[in-house]
């Protein structure tokens, strides 16, 4: 190049050797293959000791709709989708365990691990996932109390990160019997650190309702109308234990709970109050189940299913499940299954005598 002029590109190419051209093309192709479009994420990896299987990816905050299936072929998998902003993705495995990862547009996430220890898999691709992997592997095998203490320290030390929200969700928001004071303290710290995070706002709204019926808390007041048009309030059960049971006629898992409620009502009569909350969307379905199963106690069904007023007010998490309240109006336990419910009622009535 002379006189400050840039030669015409074809002239430059003609002066290049064939080897140089091939090298340049190879580098261009390599760059294209390795770079990830800025509006997409890619998850790739390998799982030892599994040849063909599938697991699922979804966003709990509604960043994208639906559940994506990720197929493992000969131990390897690749998954891509469009993404406009960083998000916490939930990976759900066939055994119903799950892992939270942080996905960022334009980044490739790499995951390697053993089928029997997916909770300890190496997940890389960004700093959040490196932190999460280090936390999970360091605390693998510890008892629940020690893990929660470590999780609390992690959240407070990384409160501005999505990794902190992922740890909070796994060890506090999704805990079956969370500690209300600790959980709310951590949640408030996260809200202060990330005031514009929409997922945290949604978790806050849901958790406060659930923690309002945590063990040891006074049952929140409410007013509902049962399927026979009668008003139902906690005051009507004052001075006696109360069971509030959530069920649905379309849920096969609800049948054992319904049978338990019948047995409890038959055994203790008016000594124990029972209130059924049906998540059926049609009153006709609810009435049919109440009549078929001879439920002789009040049942509320507003047709709104998971968005029902009483369902939200009492922070229902699992279907079927039950809340057991003592005669003083304090919650003894929540999220109960049929067998544990009957044990608790029997113990409580026996002690009260």
Helical content stands at: 25-40%
Point out poorly predicted stretches. 1-16
Topology, number of strands: 15
Question: Which CATH C-level class of the largest domain is it?
Answer: Alpha Beta
Distance between the termini: 102 Å
- Give the count of structural domains: 4
Q: Please provide the ordered H/E string of secondary-structure elements.
A: HHEEEEEEEEHHHHHEEEHEHEHEEH
Q: Give the overall shape.
A: elongated
- The percentage of residues in β strands lies in 15-25%
CATH evolutionary superfamily of the largest domain: Glutaredoxin
**Can you summarize the main beta sheet?**
5 strands, mixed
* CATH architecture type of the largest domain: 3-Layer(aba) Sandwich
**What's the quaternary structure here?**
single chain
Spatial sequence of strands, sheet with the most strands: 13-12-11-14-15
- Radius of gyration using CA atoms only: 27 Å
Structural class: alpha+beta
Our count of helices gives: 11
- What is CATH's topology name of the largest domain? Glutaredoxin
**Averaged pLDDT:** 89
Write the layout of secondary structure elements.
Elements: H1 9-15, H2 18-34, E1 40-48, E2 52-59, E3 68-73, E4 76-82, E5 87-92, E6 98-103, E7 108-114, E8 122-124, H3 127-139, H4 144-157, H5 162-173, H6 180-193, H7 198-211, E9 224-225, E10 231-232, E11 242-247, H8 254-268, E12 273-278, H9 283-292, E13 298-300, H10 309-313, E14 321-325, E15 331-336, H11 338-352
Parallel strand pairs: 1-7, 11-12, 12-13
Antiparallel strand pairs: 1-4, 2-3, 2-5, 5-6, 7-8, 9-10, 11-14, 14-15
Helix pairs in contact: 3-5, 4-5, 5-6, 6-7, 8-11
């Amino acid at each position: 190049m002379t006189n400050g002029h840039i030669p015409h590109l074809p002239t430059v190419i003609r002066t290049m050797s064939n080897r140089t051209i091939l090298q340049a093309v190879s580098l261009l192709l390599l760059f294209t293959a390795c770079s990830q479009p800025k509006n997409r994420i890619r998850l790739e990896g390998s799982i030892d000791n599994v040849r063909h299987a599938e697991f699922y990816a979804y966003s709990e905050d509604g960043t994208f709709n639906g559940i994506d299936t990720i197929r493992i072929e000969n131990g390897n998998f690749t998954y891509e989708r469009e993404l406009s902003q960083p998000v916490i993705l939930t990976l759900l495995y066939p055994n119903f365990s799950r892992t939270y990862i942080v996905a960022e547009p334009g980044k490739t996430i790499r995951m390697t691990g053993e089928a029997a220890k997916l909770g300890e898999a190496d997940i890389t691709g960004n700093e959040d996932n490196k932190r999460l992997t280090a936390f999970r592997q360091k605390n693998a095998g510890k008892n629940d109390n020690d893990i929660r203490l470590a999780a609390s320290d992690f959240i407070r030390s990384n409160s501005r990160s999505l990794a902190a929200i992922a740890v909070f969700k796994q060890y506090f928001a999704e805990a079956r019997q969370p500690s209300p004071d600790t959980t709310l303290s951590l949640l408030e710290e996260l809200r202060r650190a990330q005031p514009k995070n929409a997922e945290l706002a949604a978790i806050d709204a849901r958790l406060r309702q659930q923690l309002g019926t945590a063990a040891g808390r006074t049952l929140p007041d409410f007013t509902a109308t049962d399927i026979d048009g009668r008003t139902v309030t906690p005051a009507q059960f004052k001075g006696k234990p109360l069971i509030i049971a959530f069920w649905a006629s379309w849920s096969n898992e609800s049948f054992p709970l319904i049978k338990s409620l019948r047995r409890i009502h038959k055994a203790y009569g008016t000594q124990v109050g029972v209130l059924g909350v049906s998540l059926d969307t049609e009153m006709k379905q609810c009435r049919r189940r109440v009549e078929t199963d001879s439920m002789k106690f009040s049942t509320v069904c507003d047709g709104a299913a998971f968005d029902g007023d009483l369902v939200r007010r009492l922070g229902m998490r699992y279907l079927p499940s039950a809340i057991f309240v003592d005669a003083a109006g304090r919650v003894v336990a929540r999220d109960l299954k049929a067998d544990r419910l009957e044990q608790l009622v029997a113990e409580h009535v026996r002690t009260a005598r």
